[in-house]
Amino acid sequence: MKRLENDLRQCGLRVTEQRLAVYDWLRKHPVHPTADVIWQALLPENPGLSLTTVYNTVKALAEHGLIRTLNIDASEQRFDGEPADHGHFHCRLCGEITDFPIDPEDVQGMLPKGFIPEQCDVFVRGLCAGCATGKN
Amino acid sequence: MKRLENDLRQCGLRVTEQRLAVYDWLRKHPVHPTADVIWQALLPENPGLSLTTVYNTVKALAEHGLIRTLNIDASEQRFDGEPADHGHFHCRLCGEITDFPIDPEDVQGMLPKGFIPEQCDVFVRGLCAGCATGKN
DNA sequence: TGATAAATTGTAATCACTACAAACAACGCG
DNA sequence: CGCGTTGTTTGTAGTGATTACAATTTATCA
Q: How far is CA A97 from the centre of its chain?
């Protein structure tokens, strides 16, 4: 937990219980939840936690690169506790979002000359392994 | 324009003036507008056109693969008249969105075994060539 | 410990988007 | 060509995720 506190401090963010709870939960759960899902998950252990605080927190964490935001659905924003570049596969049948590793250099090679990448997202829609074989 | 009519018919969509107007405009303008921007652009030539119709139309076109939807900003959905796979670069300074070609095979190679891609988006944030050299 | 600046909270507002029902128009069939 | 069916358009009213705001609380540092 000291590590998480340090992360916050190095970004100039004050360390609060709420931020630690949100940040810790995102790091420990390799899913891609909405703000509301995070809130519901934390509420039992953190009574009084406000949904607004969850929104404020994920916004602050994302602005400082500690977590990532995913615009997969148009209607709702999702968050990802793993800030390093990686791809996301969205199965159109089961809806599951699967992470996969990417090599940022591969992506960089696709860019026009002079463009400087800072963050890249590779997002693929299709059928996941389970749904493709009809096992779901 | 006959080509566009055919595209609509082959998707089982009825050919209406409104759909042709939206589709034609998206094909001719290589930008990434929101529904509202499309509406404002078409209104002078198409008085009475409803914003709801623009929303309905882009939804129908996207569902049939004639155009693409871009979830670049969390707050608003953008559309792209070019349905083939290609990447998008979003400059964090000037906000411009630049297209760049990608090889779908490169992306496919990154996927876990058994996953079947159907549509892929490569989205990169950073500095565009103009902003990187300080010329903006 | 006390000052100060930032974070939290709850409520109210915003804004992109959608549901809905009535009016209308495209397409197929005679 | 005219008619009926069915899909489309339109305006309005809603929805739901997200944010603005002001009051209260709390982290941080001297």
A: 11
A52 CB burial (10 A radius; 0-12, 13-18, 19+): exposed
Identity of residue B130: G
Task: List average pLDDT for each run of 10 residues in chain B, which is 136 residues long.
Answer: 93 97 97 97 97 98 96 94 93 91 89 93 93 79
| CB-contacted nucleotides of strand D (7 Å) | 7-12, 17-21, 26-28
Contacts of the segment B76-82: beta carbons below 8 A, 24+ positions apart: B76/B34, B77/A74, B77/B34, B77/B35, B78/B32, B78/B33, B78/B34, B79/B26, B79/B32, B79/B33, B79/B34, B79/B35, B79/B38, B80/B26, B80/B32, B81/B23, B81/B25, B81/B26, B81/B27, B81/B28, B81/B29, B81/B30, B82/B30
The shortest CB-CB distance from A117 to any of B106, B121, B124 is to: B124
- Return the pLDDT at B51: 98
pLDDT tens-digit series, residues A51-72: 999 999 999 999 999 999 999 9
Residue A103 has pLDDT above 90, yes or no: no
Chain A closest CA to B17's CA: distance in Å? 27
Residue A94's pLDDT is 87
Interchain CB distance below 8 Å, B72 and A71:
yes
How far, in Å, is the CA of A52 from the C1' of nucleotide C10?
Answer: 9
